[in-house]
Specification:
Residues 3-127 form the HicB-like antitoxin of toxin-antitoxin system domain. This protein is of the alpha+beta class. Helices cover 44% and strands 17% of the residues. The protein is elongated and about 55 Å long.
C-alpha cells in the first residue's frame, strides 16, 4: 500500500513531506532521498499511533484523485509528488522458509558479517531499501 506525499522545498529550508490522506503526518529531510526515507518512518509511526488509539486508518487515494481534489490545490502548488510505501512494523519477527542460490546466500552472509549484522537483519534491511526505492 502506498500513500501519495507532497514534497515542498522553500529557500534556505529542508525538504518537507506531507500526506494529504493522512492529516498531521509530516516529515522532512536535507535531501529528497532523506525526506522520502524519513517519510516512510513517519507514515509507519503515524499509522501505528492511529491503530493504537483505535482510530480508523485512512485509505490511500490514487494519484489522479489527489491531483484532482480541489481542496488540495494550495498544497499541490509547487509541490513534488511521490508515492510512499506503508511499511508496518508489527513488533514481532516471523520465521520463514526462503530458497536462494547457494552463491547468493554466501554473498549475503559475507556482506552481513562485514556490517556486523545477522543474515536476517541484512535481508530485512535490503528488503526495506528495495521497497522504498
Amino acid at each position: 500500500m502506498r500513500y501519495i506525499a507532497f514534497i515542498h522545498k522553500e529557500p534556505d529550508s529542508v525538504y518537507g513531506v506531507s500526506f494529504p490522506d493522512v492529516p498531521g503526518c509530516i516529515s522532512a529531510g536535507d535531501t529528497i532521498d532523506e525526506a522520502v526515507r524519513n517519510g516512510v518512518e513517519a507514515l509507519s509511526g503515524h499509522i501505528r499511533m492511529l491503530e493504537a488509539d483505535g482510530d480508523p486508518v485512512p485509505a490511500p487515494r490514487d494519484f489522479d484523485a489527489i491531483m484532482s481534489d480541489p481542496d488540495l490545490a494550495e498544497d499541490r502548488d509547487s509541490a513534488m509528488t511521490t508515492a510512499i510505501p506503508l511499511v508496518r512494523d508489527r513488533g514481532s519477527n516471523t520465521r520463514i522458509n526462503v530458497s536462494l542460490d547457494l552463491g547468493l546466500l554466501e554473498a549475503i552472509d559475507a556482506a552481513a558479517r562485514e556490517r556486523g549484522q545477522t543474515r536476517s537483519a541484512f535481508l530485512a534491511s535490503a528488503a526495506r531499501r528495495e521497497i522504498v526505492d
